[in-house]
Amino acid sequence: MIRSGGLVAFPTETVYGLGANGLDAEACAKIYETKGRPSDNPLILHVADYAMAKQAAAEITPMAERVLAAFAPGPVTVILPKRDEVPSKVTGGLATVGIRMPDNDVARALIRAAGTPIAAPSANRSGRPSPTTAAAVFADMDGKIPLILDGGPCRFGVESTIVDCTGERAEILRPGAVTREMLAEVLGELAPPLVFREDEAPRAPGMKYVHYAPLAPLTLIDAPRGKIGAAFRAAVREATAEGKCPGVIVSKETAEEIESLVPPEHIAVTGSAGDLSAMAANLYEALRSFDDKAATVLFAETVEEAGLGVAVMNRLKKAAGGRIRFYN
Ligand code: AMP
Ligand code: MG
Question: CB under 6 Å to ligand 1: residues?
Fold first, then answer.
């Protein structure tokens, strides 16, 4: 299907991808159309090995060599100068291309069998939470694509770390499971964290769009550990008084504290407090779990913005459209 210009959804260790031949502009146009994705939001090319990376990148910079040697295959994407063979449709008109080697047997078998780099954004409708199970792909893509490969739940659950390796210092364009600390160990000093400003053209084009949003509006609840229970009670009571029907996304510990505050089906548990891997792996399913429920507003617990917590908070803030309430 990939070779003949079709779309195939497939598992990776981060999230499920919606794949097409990355060197075929027409095939990639179908990705944009199927997702409803803005055409200036570039795609990442997935490769099976170094040889294939060189089919897409004009140059693997020394910086990228170090990143790939340390973390590929794995949840990291390097931005490199593109070869002419890569259609500008795929890169949103940029002279650079994002390349990643997924650490998932199904993904790599698919790429090898296709014999071409596979362009693949997350396999959700644009703006929705990324799918981390085949069922979540089906929910968004039923009737739109001919094939979903089911590889079970994704191990990491948040999209790859994107590192721009074209400049003087490496720059993280999107945080992920390969953390800033891990990158600094192999690269030394990195460019300071990106701050997005409304009036500037974004460096990571996709970052300007609404992302990961559940159907019911989400608000983040930020409170110190000892006061989380009280903060959720206040938020839930206020919403209920306004005639809304709240759902909550919380750690196991917070769920125990606020038991019976909302019906059990309106609580999604992401794992133990402080277990960032579990939070990352379960976040999108937790958001999606409310799609077919009666909750009309959602509240989610924040995590500390360090290590993998940077990636988790990046996704949570986007899913919440920036709505965050602080309780001290
Ligand atoms: P996804 O939507 O999960 O497939 O992620 C793709 C994201 O990678 C895009 O939204 C961009 O932010 C980023 N990206 C891909 N290619 C490039 C590139 N050449 N330069 C900068 N960012 C890129
Ligand atoms: Mg996506």
Answer: 41-42, 44, 79, 91, 94, 96-98, 121-122, 159, 162, 173, 204-207
Cα separation of 299 and 276, whole Å?
Answer: 18
Please give the Cα distance from 238 to 302 (Å, whole number).
Answer: 19
Contacts of 300 (CB under 8 A, 6+ apart): 218, 219, 220, 221, 248, 249, 250, 286, 316, 319, 320
Separation between Cα atoms, residue 132 and residue 248, nearest integer Å:
20
User: Which of 91, 140, 173, 212 has the most ligand 1 atoms within 8 A of CB, as the residue to mutate?
Assistant: 173
Residue to substitute in 80, 125, 162, 318 for testing ligand 1 pocket (most ligand atoms within 8 angstroms of CB) = 162
Question: Closest ligand 1 atom, CA of 91?
Answer: 19
Give the chain's largest Cα–Cα span.
61
Question: Which SS3 state, helix, strand or coil, does residue 123 take?
Answer: coil
List, for residues 116-155, the tens digit of each pLDDT value.
Answer: 999 999 999 999 999 999 999 999 999 999 999 999 999 9
| C-alpha to C-alpha distance for 56 and 77, rounded to whole angstroms | 13
206-230 confidence digits (pLDDT tens): 777 778 999 999 999 999 989 999 9
Q: Give 8-30 pLDDT, tens digit per residue.
A: 999 999 999 999 999 999 999 99
User: Whole-prediction pTM value?
Assistant: 0.95
Q: What per-residue confidence (pLDDT) applies to 328?
A: 86
